[in-house]
């Protein structure tokens, strides 16, 4: 397994504080985010490495193992268990260690113990590393089930994104992580979704909230208006004498419910009554007559 210097990736030294790691990750993730570097494969690869480095260094337990065992940090628990077993019941050809280890000596020991050069000759299989990635969507993207292609370790993976995905939701793609050791299973790929806010709709759970302008005459006399939904424009009736700020609910016109086919939240519309401007003298006279009645 190639050694990856996570500190170097985040442009930090090994004494970096948790806060420094967080700031470095945010800065570099923004710089190399695929949305800001469309078509740039090198930026996409760096973005994945940055996420991988943050996943390890932002977790105190993982960081401790990484600092101690370097590229073999994922197998630290197996190593500790094997070392205890070796001390308790050493076998012919086995090795006993004490004290600290540098990366090279640990790797040699690990290969000797599990790679078939010593002991019973049986190779131990280890599961590959999990990968973490972020995928940015807008609200329209999250409204419908669709497919997207993402690049992980220079491999294109086509995924289906179900309608109704939540902001911050994480899904697992089994077997799309790093390759296993000695024929062990691959790790998994975890994708977290970042859904950008919509300027037109506010999402609260499965419900959507929006506004619709109506003129003064429709507000007073009633009528019909066309309003936007994520599924397209629809015609809505306006009751006579509708007040500014009146809120109505359209059932099943909200956001789709995740993995529940045909199920939707509701759409709430707040009416904003727009007063007429640039009135003619005749119109002003009519309003004056109304005000005295």
Characterise the protein shown here.
- By secondary structure, this protein is an alpha+beta fold.
- It contains 9 helices and 11 strands.
- It has helices spanning 6-9, 18-32, 41-57, 60-69, 76-88, 103-114, 139-143, 216-221, 281-291; strands spanning 131-137, 146-152, 155-161, 170-173, 189-195, 202-204, 207-215, 223-229, 232-238, 247-250, 267-274.
- The strands form 4 sheets. It has a 4-stranded mixed beta sheet. A 3-stranded mixed beta sheet has the order 1-5-4. Strands 2-3 form a two-stranded antiparallel ribbon.
- A hairpin with a 2-residue loop joins strand 2 and strand 3.
- The relative contact order is 0.09.
- What would CATH call the homologous superfamily of the largest domain? DnaJ domain
Overall structural class, as computed from helix and strand content, comes to alpha+beta
Total of domains: 3
Mean pLDDT: 83
State the helical fraction: 25-40%
Number of helices: 9
Low-confidence blocks of residues: 89-121
Order of H and E elements: HHHHHHEHEEEEEEHEEEEH
Separation of termini? 87 Å
Question: Strand share of the residues?
Answer: 15-25%
> Whole-number radius of gyration?
30 Å
């Amino acid at each position: 397994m190639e050694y990856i210097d996570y500190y170097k990736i985040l442009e930090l030294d090994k004494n970096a504080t948790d806060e420094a790691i967080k700031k470095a990750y945010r800065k570099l993730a923004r710089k190399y985010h695929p949305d800001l570097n469309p078509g740039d494969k090198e930026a996409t690869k760096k973005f994945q490495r940055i996420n991988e480095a943050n996943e390890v260094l932002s977790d105190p337990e993982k960081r401790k193992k990484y600092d101690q065992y370097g590229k073999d940090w994922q197998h630290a628990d197996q190593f500790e268990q094997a070392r205890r077993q070796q001390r308790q019941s050493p076998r012919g050809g086995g090795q006993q260690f004490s004290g600290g280890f540098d990366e090279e000596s640990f790797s040699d020991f690990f290969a000797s113990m599990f790679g078939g050069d010593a002991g019973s000759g049986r190779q131990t299989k280890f599961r590959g590393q999990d990968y973490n990635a972020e995928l940015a969507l807008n609200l329209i993207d999250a409204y419908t089930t669709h497919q997207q292609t993402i690049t992980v370790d220079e491999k294109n993976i086509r995924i289906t994104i179900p309608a109704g995905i939540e902001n911050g939701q994480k899904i697992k793609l089994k077997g799309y992580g790093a390759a296993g050791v000695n024929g062990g299973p691959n790790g998994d790929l975890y994708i977290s979704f970042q859904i950008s806010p919509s300027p037109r709709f506010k999402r609260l759970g499965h419900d959507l909230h929006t506004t619709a302008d109506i003129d003064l005459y429709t507000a007073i006399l009633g009528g019909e208006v066309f309003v936007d939904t994520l599924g397209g424009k629809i015609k809505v009736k306006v009751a006579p004498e509708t007040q500014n700020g009146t809120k109505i609910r359209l059932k099943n016109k909200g956001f789709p419910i995740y993995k529940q086919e045909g199920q939707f939240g509701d759409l709430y519309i707040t009416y904003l009554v727009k007063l007429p401007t640039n009135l003619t003298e005749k119109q002003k006279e009519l309003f004056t007559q109304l005000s005295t009645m």
